[in-house]
Amino acid sequence: MKKMITGGLIATASDLYEADILIENGKIVQIGKNLSADGAEIVDATGKYVMPGGIDPHTHLDMPFNNTVTDDDWKSGTIAAAFGGTTTILDFCLSAGEEKLATAVEKWHEKAKGNSAIDYGFHLMISDLTPETEVELPLLLEREGITSVKVFMAYAKEFQASDRTLFKTFKIAKDIGAVVMVHCENGSVIDELVEEARKAGQTAPIYHALTRPAEVEGEATKRAIELAHIAGAKLYVVHVTCKEALDEIIAAREKGYDVYGETCPPYLTLDQSALAQPGFEGAKYVWSPPLRPKYHQEHLWNALKAKQLQTIGSDQCSFSYNGKKQLGINDFSKIPNGGPFIEDRFSILYSEGVAKGRISIQDFVDMISTNAAKIFGLYPQKGTIAIGSDADIVIFDPDKKRKISAETHHMNVDYNPYEGWEVTGEPISVLVRGEYVIKNRQFVGALGSGRYIKRALRQAAAERINV
Predict the structure, then answer these.
(1) Side-chain half-sphere exposure of 162, counting CA atoms within 13 A
(2) What is the secondary structure of 279-310 as a DSSP string?
């Protein structure tokens, strides 16, 4: 059915203006004032922003990790994402050992099939490049429409790749036009620091942060940047937390390197003191890289405003407190790393960013949607409001206030790191390809309605992504 969105203020990464939007067959077909609404359902957005649906470039749904599995699967995770204004996610396919890369992708298709309420795509994780996987990788990416691969420089016992594998991945990616995403921490050094702490009887959650200092993130970020530059590849640094890593990214971009940076809501708003709470409460705030001392937040906000960081991912990786987090009650190194953020990404960034004057509404749209679409090959199908684009649209009330709570969120976990926080701004209705998923704060979508989105590899591998 046709829909006409009227009365709202359209916000894109570049513009802010009043207009109507006509939607037909899942696409935006007209934008203008006083459009003919013949036969269309009228959607009144008076007093609201009308913006492109959010693209979350960093999620881990139904993911095995630390001898357990994340609590949010593709059902609860994508419903929560939709409530939070996100209409497309990019999730990570994890490959293991000698498993074929294609097998990992097949597993993730099975996880998502029939379960996703919103559209989705994949990144592919690489831990080792054998002669066989070197041949398989470019063919698989082309066939599956995957434009991005992930390499860990951390988690030495689980995922960490060698510098050789990292460099070879950069070279392959450069040749086919893919983006390489890197978790930048020195995992080998972290393992040594963790072992020292455990031998000294330092087992509380705060030692998760103290054994992963900002310097190991900064060092790994510089190493990844230089290896990517030597290979001529595009580098996307995930979840930047600190000045040390940020300084390396800024310096590289000033030299013209193809380096892009992502940060996440907790690094902008929470700090290391959360892990030092009495008892085991700090376990709720254990994820990697860890929260930093508060002064790092100002540097991150300034970098967002200056466009030195490009995106905000949720790094959704949820483990319940009264359950899976308890696996590390006597040893911080056994606390499953990750937190629940997929639902509150929009509200936290708007409330702490736009409402407090740190960033503009156009910057917000850029960080929450448009830049991710451009970097990962979804633009202009997604990430903007334009004729011919998918009608992925959020109707957002900038004045709505609410308190965040585990009692009211839609994630499948028993706590929220922002418990009790009052935020300003909330998605009211969310459409994916012109169909309501959230309508007036009620889920009206259908599990399985989300589509897998193939992206085109950038054959002009030397082209710089303009973000």
Answers:
(1) 6
(2) TTGGGGG--SSPP--THHHHHHHHHHHTTSS-
Q: Which two tokens stand for residue 193?
A: 């620091």
Q: How many CA atoms lie within 13 A of 420 on its CB side?
A: 0
The angle subtended at Cα 71 by Cα 70 and Cα 74, nearest 5°, is 90
Neighbours of 173 (CB within 10 A): 29
Give the C-alpha separation, 201 to 111, whole Å.
Answer: 40
Angle at the Cα of 313 (from 147 to 72), degrees rounded to 5?
A: 95
Q: Which two tokens stand for residue 145?
A: 């429409």
For residue 231, which phi and psi values (nearest 5 degrees)?
-80, -15
Q: Burial level of 309, CB count in 10 A (0-12/13-18/19+)?
A: buried
CA distance to 64, 73, 400, 445, 447, per residue, from 115 (Å): 18, 9, 30, 11, 5
Residue with tokens 């629940």: 340
DSSP letter for 70, please.
-
- The model's pLDDT over 120-166, given as tens digits with 9 standing for 90+, comes to 999 999 988 889 999 999 999 999 999 999 999 998 888 889 999 99
Residues 6+ apart with CB under 8 A from 106: none
The answer to whether the beta carbons of residues 122 and 92 sit under 8 Å apart is yes
Residues contacting residue 50 through CB under 8 Å, at least 6 positions apart:
5, 8, 9, 10, 11, 21, 385, 393, 394, 395, 396
Q: How far is Cα 41 from Cα 437, in angstroms, rounded to an integer?
A: 16
**In this structure, what is the dihedral angle of CA atoms 328, 334, 336, 338, given to the nearest 10 degrees?**
100
- Show Cβ contacts of residue 47 under 8 Å, excluding neighbours closer than 6 positions: 7, 8, 397, 399
The DSSP code for 344 is T
The first and second tokens of residue 229, run together, are 């530059």
447/114 Cα distance (integer angstroms): 6
β-bridge partners, 431? 393, 436
- Residue indicated by tokens 């899976």: 324
pLDDT in tens, 26-61: 999 999 998 988 899 999 999 999 999 999 999 999
Nearest residue to 417 (alpha-carbon basis) of 303, 338, 302, 307: 338
Distances (CA, A) of 316 to 77, 134, 256: 9, 29, 31
Tokens of 455: 């992206």
* pLDDT the model gives residue 227: 98
Could you say which residues of the chain have pLDDT below 70?
97-98, 458-465
- Pairing status of strand 259-263 against strand 311-312: parallel
